[in-house]
Amino acid sequence: xxxxxxxxxxxxxxxxxxxxxxxxxxxxxxxxxxxxxxxxxxxxxxxxxxxxxxxxxxxxxxxxxxxxxxxxxxxxxxxxxxxxxxxxxxxxxxxxxxxxxxxxxxxxxxxxxxxxxxxxxxxxxxxxxxxxxxxxxxxxxxxxxxxxxxxxxxxxxxxxxxxxxxxxxxxxxxxxxxxxxxxxxxxxxxxxxxxxxxxxxxxxxxxxxxxxxxxxxxxxxxxxxxxxxxxxxxxxxxxxxxxxxxxxxxxxxxxxxxxxxxxxxxxxxxxxxxxxxxxxxxxxxxxxxxxxxxxxxxxxxxxxxxxxxxxxxxxxxxxx
Length: 320
What we know:
Elements: E1 2-11, E2 17-24, E3 28-34, E4 37-42, E5 52-59, E6 64-69, E7 73-75, E8 84-92, E9 97-100, E10 105-107, E11 112-121, E12 126-134, E13 144-153, E14 156-165, E15 182-189, E16 212-214, E17 217-221, E18 226-233, H1 236-249, H2 258-268, H3 280-283, E19 312-313, E20 318-319
Parallel strand pairs: 1-5, 4-6, 5-8, 6-9, 7-10, 8-11, 9-12, 10-12, 11-13
Antiparallel strand pairs: 1-2, 3-4, 12-15, 13-14, 15-18, 16-17, 17-18, 19-20
């Protein structure tokens, strides 16, 4: 089975975002669930071996989008000899923001699956991209999975990553997954996570970006404008908690409930100015356009506001 889906935004008046295109084929079905939010809905079993799903996301300049899913994706075995494939191509334009955080992908026993992400960002685009993979259903060994992630900023490589699951060479290795049953990562990318200027005459140690380590997670600054959070967990609940701790350490603004976000936007609006004209942070879709640097320990690298405290992680006792 082959299924394709397309999400495309466009700028509307007053700083608003409109979904210009929302097209999908079952079982890869899209549903708009908010002004800037789309949920992926699985309207059929799978993917199974031999299936291919393609999702294209195009976030126009100056707009924002949040993509989520209503449930985990269960990858199943099938009769075909070829693996199932899920390809996500995302382009985020100038000044745009994308938050991509679907529920976990579960690799059922006997499956063979390829997950490919190709993410292209403009120079000042902002992205929150979370991926979670569960090694099989309860009590079973995982199927085989290969996850490939490629991200570029203005055509320059930001992150290249490969994950192999269900391979004897890596499963159970203390240097890879150990006894974990889940693996996940979050990419935070954008100007707020850019490294200090390379031509600083006097490097500032307080602004130096360093890794932050916690219990089962790590927040790792990249060479470009980004931070990657990596985590392992015994189950999906523990994995999500650890990823969130790493995201907080990296200064990721959490998504707020739509009602609370609208109330905050109204409260922050000057008299006579509509709440829709506020930043993306006030919209609740993703605080990508927030005018202040991230609040976590990795904010030490931000050139606008040096940190007021040492580079530590009080939540887990980790240190950089």
